[in-house]
Design brief:
The complex is a heterodimer of chains A (224) and B (246). Chain A is mainly α and 224 residues long. Chain A is 82% helix and 0% strand. Chain A contains 9 helices and no strands. The model of chain A has no long low-confidence stretch (mean pLDDT 93). Chain B is globular, with a radius of gyration of 18 Å. In chain B, a hairpin with a 2-residue loop joins strand 4 and strand 5. In chain B, the strands form 2 sheets. In chain B, strands 6-7-8-3-9-10 form a 6-stranded mixed sheet, with helices on both faces. A 4-stranded antiparallel sheet of chain B has the order 2-1-4-5, covered by helices on one side. Chain B has 246 residues and is an alpha/beta fold. In chain B, helix 3 runs parallel beside helix 5 and helix 5 runs parallel beside helix 6. The model of chain B has no long low-confidence stretch (mean pLDDT 93). Classes of the chains: A mainly alpha (224), B alpha/beta (246). At the A-B interface, helix 5, helix 6 and helix 9 of A face helix 2, strand 6, helix 3 and helix 5 of B.
Chain lengths: 224, 246
């Protein structure tokens, strides 16, 4: 390896890492928070079978799962200004990723809620709880550990999908790598470097998942 | 105190209850016996609105209502006066035994936490589970879980407690502790409706035995009448089979 290439790699590492920490990670976490809220809401609407709203939820999931993420990004960032809604690149990306992943997380939450035996809800009713109380006190606390691995799976996917934000001018990890690659004519080294940094981030998330999963297991499950 | 009139219930065209009448008075222990599929459990589940009756009338103290068209508000009000013990215990898995018992007091009845805890510990002591108050359901045996479930049902001091085959999911060696607990409640004058396959319990503890078959009450009376001198042929056949199994 030439001295020049080694110089480019070492000097660019932090230049790529810093937007990774300052942009890619916040973009991932904010989008994920939005997707959890959207997903939980859509799941609750469906399992509670609220008339009218259920169809809205199914329609939402149908649209957001059925169209490409990059198209949704473009509609929000480049399309909405045509109808008078102009958003900056970063909030556009948060919105697109959050709304899109919300459709997937809705199904994760829904299946986790349905995985709780019916007897839990019946017992909640018979001690005098109403449906919302039963959900909040009994069903959701038990659903969360069930949903957790799949939610985390989606979080790791999201981390990597945020690279698409480079296409709507967000200066994230990947955009920065692209810029340096264009300037130095070393795309191979720079994109490998970008891949390596994504790998570090996702490895961190995997460790976090393992740690949190151990914390989440009910005492009851441990002894079973 | 609690009366059901002309209760009809069918599941996808198959009639399970066809014009059932049932009644329990204050302080009574009514054992409901009969084959699987005779509608015993369905009766209990309709009475507690876990199943919606097709036709039927309920009278509970001063309340009188149409079971097929009852509002959620009325259902909740009636359930506040009922306890229910399930075949499969259904303790809340995310809560300790103590929290299971407190939940109905604190969340549903808005009792202050310290008072609810005091009450919960009192009923756990009554069912002999005080030393397991801080255990999760998964750490308890089936019999222990069912005793906690009984504590959960009696804690709000409901007017009647419905037991749906409370020992059927238990290993034979664990049924005794649950039946003992129920016997204790019966002796204290608790109003109980018990769907059961335990003929010895029906015989010794019940004040009245109801034999059901084909979705109706075939015969009812004191344990002496039903076990000693059944009038109906179907009752005799059932008891012959049920008692000889033991």
């Amino acid at each position: 390896m030439s001295e020049r290439l080694i110089g480019i790699i070492t000097s660019s590492f932090f230049k790529i890492l810093i937007p990774g920490i300052k942009v890619t990670i916040p973009l991932t976490l904010l989008s994920f928070a939005l997707s959890l809220a959207v997903g939980l809401l859509l799941a609750l609407i469906q399992v509670a079978d609220i008339k009218g709203l259920r169809q809205v939820a199914r329609f939402y999931i149908w649209v957001f799962r059925g169209t490409p993420l990059i198209v949704q990004l473009f509609i929000i960032f480049f399309g909405l200004p045509n109808i008078g809604i102009t958003l900056d690149a970063f909030p556009s990306a948060v919105l697109a990723f959050g709304l899109n992943l919300g459709a997937y997380n809705a199904e994760v939450f829904r299946s986790a809620i349905l995985a709780i035996p019916k007897g839990q809800l019946e017992a909640a009713y018979m001690i005098g709880l109403n449906y919302p109380q039963a959900m909040v006190r009994i069903i959701l606390p038990q659903s969360f550990p069930v949903a957790f691995p799949n939610l985390f799976n989606n979080l790791i996917s999201l981390l990597k999908d945020t690279a698409l934000a480079s296409s709507i001018t967000v200066i994230d990890l990947f955009t920065t790598a692209q810029q340096i690659a264009a300037r130095t004519y070393e795309p191979f080294a720079l994109y490998l470097e970008a891949a390596f940094i994504y790998l570090i981030f996702s490895t961190g998330l995997t460790w976090l998942q393992r740690y949190l999963e151990q914390k989440l297991v009910w005492k009851s499950d441990k002894k079973r | 105190m609690l009366e059901i009139h002309n209760l009809h219930k069918s599941f996808s065209g198959t009639g399970v209850l066809s014009g059932m009448d049932f009644k329990v008075d204050k302080g009574e222990v009514v054992a409901i016996i009969g084959q699987s599929g005779s509608g015993k459990t369905t009766l209990l589940r309709c009475m507690s609105f876990l199943e919606k009756a097709d036709i039927g009338e309920i009278i509970f103290d001063d309340y009188k209502g149409d079971m097929a068209h009852i509002s959620q508000k009325d259902i909740k009000m009636l359930r506040m006066e009922m306890g229910f013990v399930f075949q499969s215990f259904n303790l809340f898995n995310n809560m300790t035994a103590l929290e299971n018992v407190m939940e109905g007091l604190v969340t549903a009845r808005k009792m202050p936490k310290d008072k609810a805890k005091e009450k919960a510990l009192e009923v756990l002591a009554k069912v002999g589970m005080l030393d397991r108050a801080y255990y999760y359901p998964g750490e308890l045996s089936g019999g222990q879980q069912q005793r906690v479930a009984i504590a959960r049902a009696i804690a709000p001091e409901p007017k009647v407690i419905l037991f749906d085959e409370p020992t059927s999911a238990l290993d034979p060696e664990l049924t005794g502790e649950v039946l003992e607990t129920m016997k204790k409640l019966a002796l204290e004058g608790t109003t109980m409706v018990v769907v059961t396959h335990e003929m010895s319990f029906a015989k010794e503890v019940a004040s009245r035995v109801v034999f059901m078959d084909g979705g109706v009450v075939v015969e009812q009376g004191t344990p002496q009448e039903i076990f000693g001198n059944p009038k109906e042929e179907r009752t005799r056949q059932f008891l012959n089979r049920a008692l000889h199994k033991l």
